[in-house]
Design goal:
single chain; two-stranded antiparallel sheet; 9 helices
Length: 257
């Protein structure tokens, strides 16, 4: 039984082992390239994919030759990085953007879903990267209002947005029903009218009918559509209901009141 190698002997033997492994991989790739149109040389789970040409009696790959020489496969400039680098800095950035486009075409929607899951995890964990992303989004929207306006108009008309709103509304209805059941059992505090009258509300209402009509009548007074009236619920008839343009102005008036 031979004695184990010392640390110095292992360090001296390492270049030989690397060269032996490289030649072994090269022979395996030559055997795999027989009858193929593109190079089958692998690095992990990915393969080269370069065009094969006949040279010195066997198939040769141009991309593998450029990688061995340390040249970029796109512009023939010196690569940046270790022995596994195949592109320069400029071509690497171009290929990264092109790969992102190909990924979106192959798996539409997956990238956005992964981003939403990642942002939700960062928000739950209090990760500073979440706040950094939010600050960047706010700055981008403030600097590009026209792009944001076009994107919102396109999003609202899309079927994906309509499906999202339908699912959200269904989910909110179930949540509010559960909250009302808990409130009826005394597990939650009662919900009062936002108009300040102190009326206890149930369901989806945020204001009682009296406060709603009071604010509606005040809006009509601002528009000059009718004389001041009492704010009782029964004194408002349907023929005083404004048109769409009037209601839009009325809605803006509500927000200012």
């Amino acid at each position: 039984m031979t004695a184990p190698l010392t640390t110095a002997e292992r360090a001296a033997r390492r270049p030989y082992e690397r060269e032996w492994a490289r030649q072994k991989r090269f022979k395996r790739w030559l055997a795999a390239n027989e009858g193929q149109a593109v190079c089958q040389a692998r690095k992990g789970k990915y393969f080269c994919g370069g065009e094969l040409t006949m040279r010195d009696g066997h198939l040769s790959c141009v991309w593998c030759a450029l990688k061995f020489l340390g040249l970029c496969r796109d512009c023939l400039s010196p690569v940046v990085g270790g022995g596994n680098s195949i592109r320069c800095d400029v071509c690497r950035e171009i290929e990264r953007n092109a790969a992102a486009v190909r990924y979106d075409k192959r798996w539409p929607g997956r990238k956005n879903e992964e981003s939403r899951v990642r942002m939700a995890r960062w928000k739950a964990e209090g990760d500073p990267r979440y706040h950094s992303k939010q600050e960047y989004r706010k700055a981008y929207r403030a600097a590009n209002p026209d792009k944001v306006r076009v994107w919102r108009a396109k999003w609202i008309r899309s079927e994906k947005a309509k499906a999202w709103h339908r699912a959200y509304n269904r989910r909110r209805v179930l949540e509010k029903r559960k909250m009302e059941r808990n409130r009826a059992r005394g597990l939650l505090e009662p919900r009062y009218c936002l108009g300040g009258c102190g009326t206890v509300l149930r369901g989806r209402w945020k204001k009682c009918r009296r406060c709603k009509i009071s604010k509606y009548v005040r809006g009509l007074e601002v528009l000059g559509k009718r004389k001041p009236l009492a704010t009782k619920a029964g004194q408002l008839s349907w023929h005083h209901w404004p048109s769409y343009s009037e209601f839009k102005t009325l809605y803006e008036t509500f927000n200012r009141v």
